[in-house]
Amino acid sequence: MYKLLAVDMDGTLLDHKQEISEENKRAIQRAMEKGVKIVISSGRAITGIERYIEELGLLGEEDYSVTCSGACVINNAQTKILEEKYISYDEFQYVFEVARKYNIYLNIYTENRILVHWDNYSTRIDSAANRLPMEIVDFHNLDKDVKIMKMTLINEDASIKEELLSVYPNIPVSDIDLPTRDKFDKRLFADAKKFLGAFSEKFTLLKTTPYHIEVLSKETNKGAGVQRVADIFDIKPEEIICIGDSGNDRHMIEYAGLGIAMGNASPELKKAADYVTLSNQENGVAHVIEKFIL
């Protein structure tokens, strides 16, 4: 019997309109009625999932979410933080040098804002989705005491604007003229580990789209976050289902007794999963609940 269900948000629980379908809501409610613990596990900050956990009725002291791809594990009443893992200032400098070397963008997630050295379209989308203000700061003079939860390396150019918009469709975002960069290589992140070399030994690297790589502290990932919640309730890995669609879901899918990729998931994630469900447009989460829990 499965006792815990961890679900990613974008591309998984949410449809292309950034909504939770009625089918998914009903299925989650029925799972909860059977005593299954529901955990939202997202790359977003807690502010970016607040309205969804409210819709699902997950606002209790014993309801938890894994946010910022595992950097923060918090109860949904926001009264108890189980885990916060930060990136040090020296580690930030290392990553910033990589961004400068390849002439790509970098953003920084803190507890209450997203920092950028240069304005960019991807971070404007992130800011709107997460309901966090974006602030342009000089990274050369970044406050050494800033608490960095995660960073994102961003490879963007005017030629891929429509693809960037598809990452978070239907999110209102202020427009920006994307520059056309000389020698823009849209396949720069094709092999994240090869691109970053020894860098991958220092951090957890998660390729969430062909143009975005999340950078977290070495031991930080969604799998570790889900495990942190499971330990509270003495739930074993074999009693857990995890569902996701992108690179930052891989650790939790591999950790779970039943790891499930969405029908719209990346090919790499589908290979790592035990089962492939329907897409997020076809209520893939509800399908999993009906097949394996109810």
Automatic annotation (TrEMBL):
The EC number(s) attached to this protein equal 3.1.3.23
| InterPro entries named in the record | Cof (IPR000150), HAD-like_sf (IPR036412), HAD-SF_hydro_IIB (IPR006379), HAD_sf (IPR023214)
Keywords, in A-Z order: Hydrolase
Can you name this protein? Answer: Sugar phosphatase YidA
Which species is listed as the source?
A: Thermotalea metallivorans
Q: Keyword check for Lipid biosynthesis, yes or no.
A: no
GO-annotated cellular components: cytosol
Task: Enumerate the PROSITE patterns for this protein.
Answer: COF_2
Q: What Gene Ontology terms describe what this protein does at the molecular function level? A: magnesium ion binding; sugar-phosphatase activity
